[in-house]
Design goal:
Number of strands: 12
Order of helices and strands: HHHEEHEHEHEEEHEHEHEEEH
Structural class: alpha/beta
Number of domains: 3
CATH class of the largest domain: Alpha Beta
CATH superfamily of the largest domain: Periplasmic binding protein-like II
Length: 295
């Protein structure tokens, strides 16, 4: 028999949500605006929560509040718990078909990920599909905070403790201006690429990580012209002659003024994985998304 809920559990949960809002927004005033309540009301809830738990959740750092060590641990546990609860509630909605259950899908390579999204949307049209593009670091942060249900990103292999399913394999190529002396070559060596200025993706990019690892393995230092945040920016920089643009082969732009040249005969490659928390496998939309995109 399920034990009865303690009378003060609802109040504690409300205070914990207020606490998490303060942590996530960075201050009492910001949390009050996000919650649509007064600042004194937020302050009162935090004080009562500290009394309930017998701990100090914040410490003063100048004019701002800094989360204490115990507060940080509580926030992490709470975020996971609320995320799991959200998954459970959506699973109930999906089973009952009483309301469209959402599937929040994040990805780093739209050219590939949208194929998976389109297949799922056609097979499961009643699901509310929410899409978000970001780099690998941002995607895992959103997955860990339960802002996304499933992501697609490049990885050197399955990553613990997540559930990982291979979707596609890509190799590094270089985008080159059509008039460049290296245009038309079937492939470049890393040594040749290291002698050319290159336009590099930002830290957190899987493409960048693959390329830098390959350069370091051969003891090479690339000539980085500058760093950009998107594949579109890489394409435009190459088009304007700033350097060559290393990208993954299925993400390279196709146009009359650019061409694609292989790097190391396609030996520098990585896999795109569909990734979720193991607990998300109990959620129907995630399970169906993985099943229909199994290769």
């Amino acid at each position: 028999m399920t034990p009865p809920t303690r009378p003060d559990d609802d109040a504690l949960l409300r205070r914990l949500r207020v606490f998490l809002a303060v942590v996530d927004s960075g201050g009492v005033g910001e949390a009050a605006r996000a919650l649509g309540v007064s600042q004194p009301a937020v302050t009162t809830q935090i004080k009562r929560l500290e009394t309930d738990l017998g701990v100090s959740l914040f410490r003063r750092s100048g004019r701002r509040l800094a989360v204490s060590d115990q507060g940080r641990d509580i926030a992490g546990t709470l975020r996971r718990g609320l995320g799991e609860l959200s998954l459970t509630l959506n699973a109930v909605r999906d089973i009952a078909r009483s309301r469209a259950a959402p599937l929040r899908f994040g990805f780093s390579a739209p050219q590939i990920a949208l194929d998976a999204a389109e297949v799922f949307r056609k097979a499961d049209p009643h699901i509310q599909l929410e899409l978000r593009a970001a780099n690998s670091t941002e995607l895992f942060a959103a997955l860990d905070s339960y802002d996304l249900d499933i992501i697609m990103t490049g990885l050197p292999g399955p990553k613990q403790p997540y559930y990982c399913q291979v979707f596609a394999r890509q190799s590094i190529v270089a985008m080159v201006p059509a008039g460049h002396p290296l245009a038309g070559r079937p492939s470049l060596s890393l040594e040749e690429l290291a002698r050319e200025p290159i336009v590099l993706r930002e830290p957190g990019s899987y493409t960048r990580a693959l390329l830098i690892e390959a350069f370091e393995a051969k003891g090479l230092t690339p000539r980085v012209a500058f760093e950009v945040a998107t594949r579109e920016a890489v394409t435009e920089a190459v088009r304007r002659g700033f350097g060559l643009g290393p990208v993954l082969d299925q993400e390279a732009s196709s146009s009359s003024d650019l061409c694609t040249v292989g790097v190391e005969d396609g030996k520098i490659h990585g896999d795109d994985f569909l990734v979720c928390h193991a607990s998300a496998l109990h959620y129907g939309p995630v399970r169906r998304f993985l099943a229909i995109n199994r290769r």
